[in-house]
Amino acid sequence: MGWFVDFKCPYCRYEEIGLGVGRGQHPFPFLALFSCANCKSIGSTWVDENKVPRCGACYHEGVTLLADDVRRVDCPKCGEPAIITRGEGVWE
User: How many angstroms separate the CA atoms of 84 and 53, rounded?
Assistant: First the structure.
């Protein structure tokens, strides 16, 4: 089971709402947060065993996976500190 998170940068106003994070009944695949330096985005992507995770926006393989419980991260657009908060709802 997983949950949703919202990313908001108070400086440049970049935001991503309703990003899925978490694991199902099996260890793989699972949804993880990522930051992509290639297209300067935050998102969530499926992580599967023995496969390289990709950016959901530009499909670049060089994404940085973020911890499920991360709450502060630098905004990929402007570099200033941004906030990740728990959103509404869960997924199964």
Answer: 21
